[in-house]
Design a protein that fits this description.
The chain is α+β, with helices and mostly antiparallel strands. The protein is built from 7 helices and 13 strands. The protein has one domain (19-283): q2cbj1_9rhob like domain (Jelly Rolls, Sandwich). The protein has helices at residues 35-44, 55-70, 103-108, 112-122, 149-153, 267-272, 275-283; strands spanning 15-16, 46-49, 75-76, 93-95, 126-136, 161-167, 178-180, 192-193, 201-202, 211-213, 220-224, 229-231, 240-249. Bound molecules: 2-oxoglutaric acid.
């Protein structure tokens, strides 16, 4: 695919980093993505799908994540960054893997609309790799610096994997939404340790290449394992929470330390597709 023909403007109205404040709301594409939108994913490396989840689904996920946060299960990836800063210290809270702690999240990989999008992007048989949650507390929530997920995963064919990022409230340029570098999915770049954290790595990106993806609760952003992405600080008065699930094609060939779960198709899917409505019903008040 010739990346030199990717137009500068995103066709769905997402703004480029550095554009004026109060940008037009990003609108993404409707479910199910059309063939040309799948082709755009392969050209750019990402796809913003609007309204993939219903408000009750998002509410149930939010409630379940709050339960895990209240139980003290999330760790602060920046806990050693600035020990003298006290309560105002920047924080980037994470729990990974997430599904061992949540039957609802464990069923999310079987959500029929999720599987339909991932199948359209990667083909079959599909496998599941991992899931996690990120919470940026209000006011002091620190963005996650530029990186490619493949740099963490350390193997496999990155073009055969896709992450799904799901904000559990609207995600804006104020509360720390996702930024991506269109077309970065074919080229691994060098990463270095993020000096703020024992666990994070980061890459250097020219901000002019970045696109800010603003999303409404219920939307999902799909992006390839080598897409350069980052989130912004949370400058709002509410926490910003997002969960991320990673899927791959069975031919992904991960390094030995990873265990793929699946396939999420064939006979397993017959039982699997019942998992989401059942878990949602059990989790709903
Ligand atoms: O939600 C965030 O702040 C970071 C998400 C991220 O970097 C990822 O899902 O790989």
């Amino acid at each position: 695919m010739n990346l030199t023909h990717i137009p500068d403007e995103h066709p769905h109205g997402q703004r480029r980093e550095g554009a004026a404040e109060n940008p037009a709301r990003a609108d993404g594409v409707a479910f199910p993505p059309a063939a040309r939108e799948v082709a755009a994913f392969h050209a750019r490396g990402f796809l913003h799908v609007r309204g993939l989840f219903t408000p009750p689904e998002i509410a149930a996920l939010r409630q379940d994540i709050l339960r895990l946060q209240d139980a003290g299960l999330l760790i602060d990836l920046l806990k050693d960054a600035d020990p003298d800063a006290g309560a105002a210290r920047p924080a980037n809270l994470q729990l990974c893997p997430l599904s061992p702690h949540s039957a609802l999240v464990a069923a999310l990989r079987w959500h029929p609309r999720v599987l339909a999008v991932v199948r359209a992007l990667l083909g079959e048989p599909l496998m599941f790799l991992l899931d996690q949650v990120f919470i940026k507390p209000s006011g002091r929530g620190a963005g996650t610096d530029w990186h490619q997920d493949h740099a963490y995963f350390g193997g496999g064919d990155p073009l055969l994997g896709v992450g799904m990022w799901v904000p559990l409230q609207d995600a804006t340029h104020v509360n720390g939404t996702m930024k991506v570098v269109p077309g970065s999915h074919r080229q691994p770049v060098e990463h270095h340790r993020d000096p703020r954290s024992e666990l994070l790595i980061r890459a250097t990106v020219d901000p002019a290449r970045a696109q800010v993806i603003e999303m409404q609760a219920g939307d999902a952003l799909f992006f390839g394992f080598n897409v350069l992405h980052a989130t912004q600080d949370n400058r709002s008065s509410e926490p910003r929470t997002a969960i991320a699930l990673h899927f791959c094609h069975q031919h992904y060939a991960p390094p030995a330390q990873w265990t793929l779960v699946g396939p999420l198709s064939g006979t397993a899917a017959v039982a699997g597709t019942a998992a989401w409505p059942r878990a949602l019903e059990a989790a709903s008040p």
